[in-house]
Fold each of these.
Amino acid sequence: MALLLHQAWMGRSLCRNQKRPHQIHLPACTGYACNIKYEHGHAIMDFALFSRFDIIGLSPDSLEDETGIKQAAENVKALIDQEVKNGIPSNRIILGGFSQGGALSLYTALTTQQKLAGVTALSCWLPLRASFPQGPIGGVNRDISILQCHGDLDPLVPLMFGSLTAEKLKTLVNPANVTFRTYAGMMHSSCQQEMMDIKQFIDKLLPPVD
């Protein structure tokens, strides 16, 4: 199961079940988390509310909405708890998102006590990075797999933020499990190759179960 968190400043669009295999759709749903459940080769998506946090600035020395970030992370952890109660083991859940959603996914995965399968972090950054240790984190996600993707022409979250985030992540978790991919000519958006990379990542971490 993949929980995808969307960025806060994109517009709202209609969301519906996707029944075509081997495709991943990231509709822009303000303030929603998108659950992609793979059943019989199909991606079935549903949505649940989660809290956003304020973005005060995107420079390395900008103030951050610490209270909002932590509250949003707790809401995502509660969503994971609910899926576990529904019968999905936490180690069969991939947390991910785009922009602000990707930032929240990284922060949540690194602070939760729920063992996750992995994280997809798209065009984003690690919030509250100064709050993390200089060395490896403790807890159950020390060896979590992370796929981080970024466009080299991103004007909103510059590639530098992605590079710095990848460097930091490799000090917090097993560096062999951190993959940082860049896409030539891609802005604050997505591309077909990125979607293919995400699909391969999900397929590898969440093989079919009987």
Amino acid sequence: MDTSTVSNPWASDQRSQGPYGLLIQQAELSGHLKKRRDRDIAMATDHAREQSPSLQLFQVLRQITAQRKELDKVNVEVQCRLQDQETNDITDLSTLENRIKQLNELSQHLQAVMQHKSHLKSRLQKPFVGEYLHIAAQYQRCVSEVFPMLAPILSDLQTNLDNIHWASTFSMDNGHMDRTLDDLTASLARLQTGLQSLVQLRGSVSQMHHTSRSQQPTGRPVS
């Protein structure tokens, strides 16, 4: 038997692949194309993943684990924000500066009280002179809020009393109201006449302007 013409299927003879086979093999070796074995393995893996419930369960568990990690990150961030909010009064610089300012004002007020302590004692020990309203302690705040509301009313009290006095003494029997109404009617009539005159004057001016524009020549003058 002549074996010279029989090709060995296990031999890696590149000449039997042809130019296209050599090109594909070089592309696979250089990494420009995926190897057919890797492609077959990937296809088999995808097929098994689609058909196997166990692999699908692993995929779902992997997704759940990733979502839990994201949820843990969010929870940690929320806790950090809550902690920052709770400790904002002792960590925020603007809040600390405001507290320091308030403490300085309180300290200055207390120092002023201590400096005028003797004067305050003498004022408190003196009896009341004049007429005062005796108000219980629980109502002092209400009274202090009422007085600012009464101040503008008391300032306009005299004007309101004068208006009331005028209304009580005014009488329509003497014909004063009739004369006032007649004067008002005459004033309105004069105002209406003047308005009509202005409207007529405006119409006349507009008509004159339109006539002057229509009489102007439209062509250019011949030189």
Amino acid sequence: MQQGVEMMKVDNQATMTLKLGLPGLLRESLKIFHKNPKFIFFTFLTSIPLFCTMLPHEMLFQRALMEAVATLTVRTESTDSIDSPTYYADEQLRTIEGLVWSMSHQFLKLALLYLFPLHVCDLLSILATVDSASAIYAGEEGTDGVKEMVQRLITRTRWKGPFITSIFVLTMSAVILFEIIFIVALSYYAPGINLSELLYGLLNAALYAACFLVLFKKWLEWSAVWNMGVVFSILGKRHGIEALELSAYFSNGSCRQLGFLLMLGLFVWNLGLRLSCFLLLHLVGRQGNQWTEILATSAQVSLMCLGNVFKWVTFMVYYYDCKNRFSEKKIHVEEASSV
């Protein structure tokens, strides 16, 4: 009964909130940190396991990326003088096969590290962030101190539903990412461009670029829907496919575009951090040592964890904003039908 009353308080808070655009979402999210500074320390504590598991994962990823770039650079230089398009394509195919074979053990390590420890620690951070941020946003009691937030996380937060939903999200996201990687690999395998094949090369590049952009845009849009589905699982009683279906239903229209912008901003943030770290380590090269790699990657992972916390606070506000938009739209439809 008490839990139902608290959920009604949250819904009332969401109903009173006006429809928000992207600046409004960011502003409301920042207000949560300002309203309860202890929430910052709480999210810092719950992000420590995520940091500890993400650090070796990112170090392995950076090493695999540098090894792949080095391999592709050497192979590309060796095929630059080839004039035959057929032989060039065969060499490109052999390059991809050799790269996949040589990097398979690295990607296996990354996959295993991501599937269990990193995914579980990420889910812990998500649960702690979304549940406490929602309580602060709604003005509920029991969120005044870190101790109360920890007790709330242990005793009142749902774990099973969000875990099931996150498995669905992880699977679907992996499928889309593999499709994007496949398109990139196909574009690399395409025959080389010379003056006599300029038109073919341009058309080929335009085709792969269009496929990549369409799939990339859909991936960002669907990621926003999937993330809100996780929020549905934490704050509601639905989980799995049902939570994702509700998320897609509530996020139609302008909410879908807003979710795309949120995910695009997050993607740019993470990509910028990874590229900055990669370029730094690449420039340092042999002059650096293991400590340089650890410090650079630690700074990158720290900022990624910070972005992850802000992401889920924003998606919590986005969840209520979409519900508010949907309720308002439903009221307008009922009023129009009654006229």
